[in-house]
Amino acid sequence: MKRRKRVLLIAGLPGSGKSVFSKVAQQMSIPVVSLGDIVREEALKRKLDLTSENLGKIAIELRERYGKEVMAKRSIVRILYNESPLVVVDGVRSLEEVYYFKKFFEVYIIAIHASPRTRYSRLKARGRPDDPSSWEEFSTRDLRELSLGIGNVIALADYMIVNENIPLREYEEICRKILLKTMREICYESRG
User: Which of 65, 94, 97, 125 would you call most buried, defined as having the most Cβ atoms within 10 angstroms of its Cβ?
Assistant: First the structure.
């Protein structure tokens, strides 16, 4: 009997460390699908700038028009047709997305947490076009993310990483250990 593909759903507020987790996975040759990229692709299709405001409006509009699991539905082909037995999905924001993925895959949720001050500092340093330029913009973005249901996903996480006051290399090692543990489990299950 063929085992179901395992999918690690990464959830966390902006600046918590999701993209670092994804980068570590990619370095380990584990495929990563970013739900945020789906929103960014939609913005580019509409010829809109990749600002936090535009991306937020699109994310809400898509969910209102097509359902709260729309990002999961739009990403499913990228996961189903990937040969890897393990895929990381970066940026899950609702339980509807989680439940949609569970129809097809063995799913584990990894929540990444950091304080608002730490996350704001990271986003200011990162400087991506959609990163907030003020505390007010940051707070508005957090409230929007929470309104999508991300807090419920984090509350039901299988693993919680607190990415606060630890050096980047140490955080990367925590991510690597979780991914290695998952890969070992998949290898062990495929033998048995």
Answer: 97
Residue with tokens 């250990």: 177
How many residues are there in the chain? Answer: 192
- Architecture label for domain 6-191: 3-Layer(aba) Sandwich (3.40)
**86 CB contacts (<8 Å, ≥6 apart)?**
5, 6, 7, 8, 30, 31, 179, 182, 183, 186
Q: How confident is the model at residue 191 (pLDDT cuts 50, 70, 90)?
A: low
Distance (Å, whole) CA 30 – CA 25: 5
Phi-psi region of 191 (alpha: psi -120 to 50; beta: other; left: phi over 0): alpha
Can you give the pLDDT at residue 1? 40
- Residue 15 and residue 5 in contact, taking contact as beta carbons nearer than 8 Å: no
Q: Is-contact 75 89, C-beta < 8 A?
A: yes
Q: Which of 69, 70, 86 is nearest to 33 (CA)?
A: 86
Which residues, other chains included, contact 125 with Cβ-Cβ below 8 Å and sequence gap of 6+? none
* Mean per-residue pLDDT over the chain, rounded: 93
pTM of the full structure: 0.92
